[in-house]
Amino acid sequence: MEVEVELIPRVIKSKGATKALRRQGTIPCVVYSKGTVGPNCAVSKVAIDTVLRELETGFLPTTIFILKDASGKKRRAIIKDIQYKVTTYEVEHIDFMELIDDVKIDVKVPLQCLGVIECVGIKAGGYLRQVKLHIPVRCFPKDIPSHFEVNVQDVDIRQTRRLSDVKIPARVIPLMKPEDVVVTIVK
């Protein structure tokens, strides 16, 4: 999924200035590129809240943001880190990582379970325990998968699905061992 967001330039003066930015409805952010810190900027709180509200749970790490600056230049990026206010869970700060076509990146790809309703183990009284919600992988930006799927329809109680059971494209390198358990049906 790709989302376009407009960057608002900002100058860091003090904590008070940053708090004033938040009160004006913007979220401070930083764009990292090839290990260097990019310009300090801000994004619209309304735009980010809309994206987060519409996004399926767990899909934030693979969501690609098109960052448009004041000059009209567009850069593709993913969220490297996001900070929330502890009491209200409002977004306080975002770190973006720019995607460079010829540079591999590490990203956590969400794992979805298919066939849960028809699962043999669940019908027998067990319940699904998803051990891994995300699978860390390394790949080029153009190869970032939106998600992985694992079918649990024929998994019985005390049986598991491992990383080797997940179909992963050839150009994507998992950063886990093939024998690592991703899903199990427990009693």
Fourth-level CATH superfamily of the largest domain: Ribosomal Protein L25, Chain P
Strand order of the largest sheet: 1-3-2-6-5-4
Please give the domain count.
Answer: 2
Distance between the termini: 37 Å
**Helix content bin:** 10-25%
Main beta sheet, described? 6 strands, mixed, barrel
How large is the count of helical segments? 3
Q: What fold name goes in the CATH topology slot of the largest domain? A: Ribosomal Protein L25, Chain P
Q: Could you give the count of β-strands?
A: 13
Gyration radius (Cα, Å) is 20 Å
Strand proportion? 35-45%
CATH class wording of the largest domain: Mainly Beta
Q: Which structural class best describes the helix and strand composition?
A: mainly beta
Which architecture of the largest domain would the CATH scheme give at its second level?
Answer: Beta Barrel
Q: Kindly report the average pLDDT value.
A: 90
